[in-house]
């Protein structure tokens, strides 16, 4: 039962949720950008502070050289409206209770008329600060006179002096309403503190007196106008009354309260009713009359009204009886029989009587129709007469009412103006102040400007801002890789290793530095990259790794050689120089210049044994580029090259292919899809990030699998000081000293 007991995993309910870090809405890239800005400022802190101090010193010099200006402020309360005097609400105009009233008064306070009144009252042109005459004798005037630009001599009097001084006063005047109140601050700035207080108080008083004078003049004007208007209205009233009386006498009218119009209306209504009845009767007889008139030869047998008449009906019955007797005798007697002849005579007599009755009825109906028409015409004439009488009465009463209304209107208007004239005469001497001073201006103790402390502080802050913006701008213009953090954030690729910058002899022999200086920073970084390569794709035994970069001089070839030397210590490794345009692998590893290599093997001019070379002091196998072909890309995309790779790959653990830079030629895009992984070498603080991104994007579109990037040529001290790059954590010397005691693998 010696088994390791594995504890059951805790249920989600038993595991406490971790605390989520506060993100503040910033992405990792934004945080990195802020951190980079701070490091840029820290890197150039002394130039920034020097610029800020210089600007602060300039600000202090300018501030202390300025003439101090003092401000005095008087607080004025603007009344909400005009009070009522003698029950006259609109004595001097409509009362304004809205905010427009306050805004209007503020604009009046700012007006030139109030400023001119203040200047005239105080005679400010005699004060040196406002005297416009001193400009004519100043340095500027003398210079203009020398060059012939001097203006003509101006004749000064009180009017011209006041006009010239008013503009200067208004320039230094400030009128500011206090929010949510009826108070207004009237401020004046001047180098003379006593004068500033006097001007503020005098301008407030001038504003109030100006309003009083305006009211008085308006009252006097209104009094004269009202008296003149009342006289005109009185004459109009007398004329209208005389016209009313004359009309009554002319028409003989008395006040009957509309009784004459009512009587005429009743007569017209009665005639109208009778006319309607007569017209209905005439219309009823008109149809019969038309049928009778249309009957030809006096035959009215087809006129229903005639046939339905009682006398005609009786005659028809007699004719029918006579006809019946004739018909009965005709059955038994001949036409010459006495009875037959008597019966026929009776029939003729009955028929004649029927015709006479028809004619008589027709004549009576025609006569009745004629009478109905005459009656209708008579009633129409009577109605026209009655209507004319009503209209005549209406016209007279209408004209009478017009005259009466005119008299009443003139009387009411005359009474109103007389009342207003009396009120104006009684209240013209009573003037309500539009405002009052609630807090007079006092002499200021401290100047309002210049604010020396504020100017110095603003200059210092401005210097800091300009210096900081300049530092950040310089850093932004340097769009390169500055360490592993910036590489991962900007390229979104893992960093396999960071190789330090080298100088002098180390830089000249960097290609074999892994063998010559195994305890150096550079060798340790190569081991870190080797570990990353070995831990990636652990299930794949035979791996083909392509090494490339964006542009030349990024250390691609030296990195490939050192990385191959490191891999060769643990695995069977082959380094192929596929940069047949500028081959460097064979030269740096001490191979002969005419050594056979990749181009010879692909073209079949040399065997595999002739093209693969053993490096002295290392198990690394190297295949140089061989003879330079006219078009290297044709060899790399050929089927023969692919067969060579497939033949070599099962025999080796690692095959590293050094290819040309991506930005120059397309060789790397041809090899990338065949490789199991691609390592991208970038030069720190030199290669622009957009160029690197473009190269990575091109490789990925071609089908290459990017394993990661190796940052080459980084100055560890600058990176740690200015970019926050913890390349050795401060214990590099101890670590490498301990590492040097271990056997090299």
What features would you describe in this structure?
This protein is an alpha/beta fold and 745 residues long. 57% of the residues lie in helices and 10% in strands. The strands form 2 sheets. An 8-stranded mixed beta sheet has the order 5-12-11-6-10-7-9-8, with helices on both faces. It has a 4-stranded antiparallel beta sheet with strand order 2-3-1-4. The longest helix has 90 residues, at 338-427.
Break the fold down into its secondary structure elements and pairings.
Elements: H1 28-43, H2 45-65, E1 70-78, H3 99-109, H4 112-122, H5 139-146, H6 158-171, E2 173-177, E3 183-190, H7 193-251, H8 259-294, H9 304-307, H10 310-332, H11 338-427, E4 435-439, H12 452-477, H13 484-491, E5 495-500, H14 504-508, H15 513-516, H16 521-535, E6 543-549, H17 556-568, E7 573-577, H18 585-588, H19 598-603, H20 608-611, E8 613-614, E9 621-623, H21 632-636, H22 639-648, E10 654-658, H23 667-671, E11 677-683, H24 689-702, E12 706-714, H25 716-722, H26 732-740
Parallel strand pairs: 5-12, 6-10, 6-11, 7-9, 7-10, 11-12
Antiparallel strand pairs: 1-3, 1-4, 2-3, 8-9
